[in-house]
């Protein structure tokens, strides 16, 4: 007997920017390794046999899980507090202290990371790119807890040989590189006894950002990334004080620092990028580098909104991040809403004749004729793409779609109870009838007011984890 599992019901996805697809009464088959092997209309689904079928109840639909492209795992310890300072002071006052605390208290680290894993799944996040701490063992705890939770996690041990906190820094560039190499090996060994499809965690090289990394360290990490085919994550052009620090200390823009050290490649994901110009986005696209857009933390720390439409117009790979704890919400649905809100405010400013770009973030070497970008606002469907398929593309994954060959990473959303036809969570329905057909209007309503009360199941690599 085969071990294929089949799900029958309504499936919704955003295969490309701004395109929403609603598949009513479809069947989707998943093999024993958690990969989709068929997806078609239920009455045409005759080429696959199965031993088990799950019928998605009326009032429910299945959507790809969310991808969080930028989250600081140790900062979950103080999520929702300490947002009162500029970035560089905030790091000194809150962040480094909390990371040092977890590095010295592994029991606390395991508790924090276990709760984080559960919270991510509750909010529909099946894939996450994580910043950790500088201690190898603490990051291995993070990797273990994500694997146990069943989350597809890319775990980054921080590399930083420069620090404003003398007790929280690696001894030298050589020591930092050796620690990075060791962590990569140890992280990979955690899952070496598992089948390939069961290995959900992957190490990522993580130079924190230019202010904490010497040229020697950046160069060494670039060589390690190429040799071991490792992804790289960092922060780029995030905040005014950070940009000015790099200009003063390095005498150049941090995009140039990363480029000169071969750290802008298709394996790289850079967070924020709020102070990049349209010309810089063309460079980013040419490198194949992806950007993690974190709209909430940008409001607190960047003093400038990310130029999302300009990046998308230049075919930059962009997805969404929560940036815990620079952003206070671990829910990607909030990131989607905030991304739309910020973009609409940008469009409103443009409509009112305000300047598109300030002199502050247009250094002399980047001066170029400003182009007409069209409507700067994005809509909810575009944000849903960024939260699902866009994240998979940024990470080089096949997910975010219901198609053969993709992993079955999905979440089931319930808007109406099956037995009483009552709305669930924030939903109220004013006719006592069962919800039988999903329209764009209903999906948009979920996008606006849905929350974790509407999420009843989550699958990652075919395994039900919530």
UniProtKB/TrEMBL annotation:
Q: Which domain of life is it from?
A: Eukaryota
Alphabetical UniProt keywords? Hydrolase, Metal-binding, Zinc
GO CC, sorted alphabetically, is: cytosol
Q: Gene3D superfamilies under this entry? A: Metal-dependent hydrolases (3.20.20.140), Urease, subunit C, domain 1 (2.30.40.10)
Q: Where is the signal peptide?
A: none
Concerning SUPFAM superfamilies, the annotation shows: Composite domain of metallo-dependent hydrolases (SSF51338), Metallo-dependent hydrolases (SSF51556)
Q: What is this protein called?
A: Amidohydrolase-related domain-containing protein
Species classification: Eukaryota, Fungi, Dikarya, Basidiomycota, Agaricomycotina
